[in-house]
Amino acid sequence: MTWRPAFWLAAAGVVLLDQATKQWALSALEPYEQHPLLGDLLSIQLVFNSGAAFSLGSEFTWVLTVVALLVTAGIVFYGRRAQRSWAAVVFGIGLGGAVGNLIDRLFRDPSFGQGHVVDMINYGNQFVGNVADIAIVGAAAALVIAGIFSLPVLDGGPAEGDDAPAESGDEVTAAENGAGERG
């Protein structure tokens, strides 16, 4: 498909931006020191997250790394099947976010596969995130909205039990392919 490069370019762009902002934070900020941007609503604060969102699972960092690898593989699988250029870009943004945080899990201290994610955007002292988190949440929200409005996201692929390739006119919406469902 002609927009597959958009998938990979969007992913690469997010990874580069994410890693650049993390390097900036590491070199310019003191850990845990808060720098207000919008009063109490938004600040910059360097923290290291061993867990998932809201530091959940911080004792099981290696499990989160395995889950991140599986999610990354899933995004690549589905992203390459994007039916529209906007969908390819959305999946690419999600992939970039997943890879950005996966890089931290694999290569940052304390050890390979158990690295702590560098976060620096403090949202009203509720949680601290990074560019990768924004990309992941934004891509997920876009896919949910696509599902709500039944916008075509993925190609149909072969029907169940059918080995024939999908017709070019076959469309599968986000709602039909489960993008809006979470288990």
Automatic annotation (TrEMBL):
HAMAP family: LspA (MF_00161). It holds the Pfam family Peptidase_A8. Residues 159-183 are annotated as: Disordered. It is an enzyme of class 3 (hydrolase). The chain crosses the membrane at residues 60-79, 86-107, 127-149. Its EC number is 3.4.23.36. Belongs to the peptidase A8 family. Residues 160-170 have a biased composition (Acidic residues). Keywords: Aspartyl protease, Cell membrane, Hydrolase, Lipoprotein, Membrane, Protease, Transmembrane, Transmembrane helix. This protein specifically catalyzes the removal of signal peptides from prolipoproteins. This is Lipoprotein signal peptidase. InterPro entries: Peptidase_A8 (IPR001872). It is found in: Cell membrane. It comes from the Bacteria. The keyword Transmembrane helix applies. The active site is at residues 119, 133. It comes from Demequina sediminis.
